[in-house]
Specification:
The structure is a homotrimer. Chain A is an alpha/beta fold. In chain A, about 40% of the residues lie in helices and about 15% in strands. The model of chain A has no long low-confidence stretch (mean pLDDT about 95). Chains in contact: A-B, A-C, B-C.
């Protein structure tokens, strides 16, 4: 009898810094306990994977507009509460550093070092006009079927 | 030894179009992989099940007000991000059609065709003053106990 | 062969009354079915555990500000939808009482009576400057590792 592998999957749907931090803290914790961990980035969650700098790409009008209006990378995300026109995220980053806790970019780096599978949802990339060149290097690309395959094998499955 | 049935349950609490789309894409994907799938609609998620047209019903003052203020059906839901006074949902619908992806009403239809169990939470229906006549035909009605029964049997349980 | 214990865990990340009510209804339902239930309060979810009255404590400037700006206890939480500057929560509380449903403070009390493990996330308590004296009596304190331990044993794991 083969024992079921311990696994954890997280769908990161939300594009807010506090939710992304929670997702990565759980994911990094699970990886430290030797779980196989997948984070599946879809909809606004994809913004956490964007590179800081704009990438020159051929895009239609609507895709360009989406690209400009959505936050570019983990440092630019807002908060789900107490955002105060962008003051909130600055306060949270200040507080994280004061407590020697990892900031979101550092949590993402740690996740990659720990071998956490970061998967960008190709369907929502299409919808929002995001292209591979704009996203972090070293991530995977897949659809909902791949997510469901991982989730069926995992014990802990969260939607954030 | 009886093998555990593959199952997926989703609590749809949120009343936003993007979250409902994500819920139905995951649910329809899981059903395509032969999972038993249940979506349990509670609180604002119930609005995704409302019929487009108002239904004449005897209601108290507060129930009438809730009924008027909440979005009537899947086409009227807002977005959790970039709603822009209702422009956002129109853009998303445009983009879905452009990419030959299913819109929310189509995803709901597909879910019913695939035999996904759509369950309206009777307790929150009471609270919000929603009656069966106002909701989609062919759905089920149950409470949290029924949800927990399904969730205990399922591998993938999400709260959206 | 040892049978797997039925367990349910909920991460309560959100600080809104409607989401906290949903979390406690599911948790209390699961406890009634004899599940081992843990609610792990993190980020804004911690506000549901705060005492109604301010507690005199030595705090830094930023911690004091967080303490003042965040809602103090379950009666002060807003709604995720239709908050209307605080009118919404009052309407929901009115509707709960009208239907003889439990209000959030009553749901929390019931959870404690049923032996549901209420765990405050120590890491986010630090970040938000919340101290044990400000939170409900009889709760536990732990980090993400303890949560993951419980979640790995549970069948139903939700992030709310």
């Amino acid at each position: 009898m083969v024992e079921q592998k311990e696994g954890t999957t997280i769908v990161l749907f939300s594009g807010e810094m506090d939710k992304a931090i929670a997702a990565f803290i759980i994911a990094n914790g699970a990886a430290a306990y030797d779980h196989e961990v997948t984070i599946f980035f879809t909809f606004w969650g994809l913004n956490a994977l964007r590179k800081d700098e704009p990438v020159k790409l051929k895009k239609g009008w609507l895709e360009k507009m989406f690209g400009r209006m959505m936050p570019r990378g983990p440092k630019k995300l807002g908060l789900s509460k107490m955002n105060y026109m962008g003051m909130g995220p600055k306060m949270i980053q200040h507080v994280l550093k004061k407590h020697n806790a990892l900031t979101l970019p550092q949590l993402i780096e740690l996740a990659q070092e720990q071998g956490i599978k970061l998967v960008a949802c190709t369907m929502t990339m299409d919808l929002l006009g995001l292209q591979k060149e704009e996203l972090l290097d070293g991530i995977e690309y897949a659809g909902v079927a791949a997510y469901l395959g991982d989730a069926s094998q995992a014990k802990v499955n969260l939607f954030i």
